[in-house]
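quick one before i forget lol
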Amino acid sequence: MIDTVKYLPVGCKVTSDNRPGWKHSEHSSDYGSPLVILTHVPTGLRVTSRGGTVASVEASLPRVVFGTNGQLITSQAVLDEALEVTDNIISEVATVPERREFSRIDLCWQFRGEQRNWLQAHRYAKYPGTHSTAREYSTGLGWYGKDFKARLYDKEAEVNKGSGVMRLEFALSRHKLSKEFNGTFEPVTQLNFADSYAVYRQLAVGFQPHRVPKISSDAEFLALGEQQGWNYEGTPAAELFLGHRCGKTARKLRREVTAAQLQYHEINWHILLPEAGLPEVVDVVPSPRRRLLKSAPAALVKDLPAANLSK
């Protein structure tokens, strides 16, 4: 449910910037002291500080607790555990914060579905508060507004180069974050799983996906054209198509067009995300071979066995 978070850890001071397992980098700043970024190599958690005071912490909570962000946080207990582990990691290089003031929270869930149908259903669907229809990229779509980003993409394709698990995620920041969680501009200081799911559901039902027709034959395609009134200068598109077929074939196709009962792929967010209870939990974890490829030295990759490469 919750993936990446970014927050101000109030009262947090750096205690060490040279610990094993951490990457250290410095960046010039217009505000005097340089920005120091400490990155926890195993989890990607980042601690950004200036003048010894921690300015922000950014972490993928699923990656912190599971080792991958393809596995979902599905309860308050797991969410609390992820925050506790985050504090433990931070304690290696800084003091534990007095409290957290969140400036970004990413909400997500994953669903079984065919990439082509899901993207086609949402491609021309505008989202309230965004500037336009979706922007397209290789395996998904994105919508962008002020302090808000929505993405719909194939998580299985991202993690394992496969297909079939669609992920809808919302990145909320600053005023949009406070408004959705608190109804005010007061900062969010606590993470509650039930509240996060309610916010996620409310955001998701803002989509109005289009129905996607199931087309498996010329007759069904022509039937769709008749239903939609396709024509060229008054001549139905079906007649233009059939006019280039011999009489017997044309008559057969006309009968099939008349008999065709079009079916549709439909995505209904109200049904996918029930108010009472959670939807099906669909996790995406790296396949054993992909974990091995990621961790193996480049010189050894060529010697890895080919078995299970497609998993």
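fyi Confidence is low (pLDDT under 50) at residues 291-311.
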